[in-house]
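FAQ: What does a multi-protein file look like?

Like this. Sequence, then tokens, then the next protein.
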Amino acid sequence: MATLLLLLLLLLGFSAAHQGQTHDGELSVENEDFTETILRINNGSSDFLLEGDVLIPRTRNAMKCFGEPYTCLWPKSRNGKVEVAFILSDKYDPSERTRIVTAMKDLESQTCLRFVPRVAQRGYLSIEPRYGCASLLGYTGDKQVVSLQRFGCINHGIIQHELLHALGFYHEHTRSDRDEYIQINWENINKYFVFNFRKMDTDNLNTKYDYTSVMHYGRTAFGTLRRETITPIKDPSAPIGQRERVSATDILRINKLYRCWSYIG
């Protein structure tokens, strides 16, 4: 019995050394970038997730925006602001709610976006602590869930990452001209996840490829045994997969996509 107890204590100690909760309640793993955090948390989700965290709606094709121009964008109000209505689940505690709202305010401070509590708007974000970190892509004109699991997803950069999906942005590593900037190491990708590296027919808004984008996945995304799946071409040592906050280019793209002309210098 004493031997068994000692073995259990050793196993718990090993687990604590490699995984635990940070000071702000995030589930962390040593040397893990935000890509790995999202993919690990989303592992086992019953939803079909494109590129690891993009929910595919059952009622429309999320790969293309059909219909009149800009129907997949959140509408602009008469005051020139893009009002994104939202409901924030009461299952979040006060500190979690503060982090989510702070991430929104950060986006508002540099764009014409305004996140407003839902009153009666038909189209709105429902931010809920479901399983994993995930979002639908673009405006659907109805309730659309942004899933931010309480432990792991309540991180400033991850929150903004999922909000940008809801605004209509794909991941940076799947943009149409990515082969000029990154090498995909196909041999290192788990065969069941190869589809996540399919290039998209994206509107790049005449902006440069951005390794520092909060939408760029890290080097080992979907890799077997954490092997490198994405390698920057021009600078193989360039850091990718940061989760601090949106980059300057992320902000520029929001302002171009939503025609926030007064915010573009």
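And here is the next protein:
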Amino acid sequence: MKTLLLITSLTLVSHSSFADISDIDAAANTMNITELSQYSENSNDYEKAYADYRLAITANIIGQRQLAADSLNNAQQTLETMLNQHTSADSQALLAAVYGMQIAFDNTKGAEYGMKTAQLLQQASELEPNNPRVNLVKAINAFYTPSTFGGGLDKAQTLASQAITQYDLPCDTICWGHAEAYTWRGLAKQEQGDLSGAMQDWQAALDIDPQYGWANFLLNHQAVKQ
């Protein structure tokens, strides 16, 4: 179940061809492959990498595996090039998320990217201790990592809660992930049997972003089950 969540989640999170982060999020929420592809082609640096990241997940969900793989590789290449030129906590966090997806797509890459992911997140935390996207990616990583290896659901909840608090800080440019942090915390609660708490978090995600498709899907899915 957790593997499926990773493949589907980070996407279910207008527009000129030159996108900002909110444009990319809006296209991802509606699974708009055409817009995400345009944003990737016409953007540079972080925005291009972020567009490719969201495009990779969206393409995978609708079964376009080659596009997903290509987009993920493009995001990785862009971010690695950027970090060779300039250190940035946001770029480190996004690259860690990309590495995590690479592992999810092909678990034989775990040995190659697992250590790199941990190093990137540690460096990002040292560079910007109050960056919420760093703690969000750390929470996602903890969600999929057994507690015996330093992860676990309790740690995922703690890190997601830290991210949620940090999202209250002012943000001007790179601002994605607020609703996502609530959604991941809700997933950790669900895995631990706290469905009421999970649904409260998913509703909080929709209060932040009413168009956030993933939280809406999770709430509707529970409503149907009940």
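Q: Is there any per-entry metadata?
A: Some entries carry free-text notes. For the entry above: DSSP finds twelve helices and no strands in the chain.
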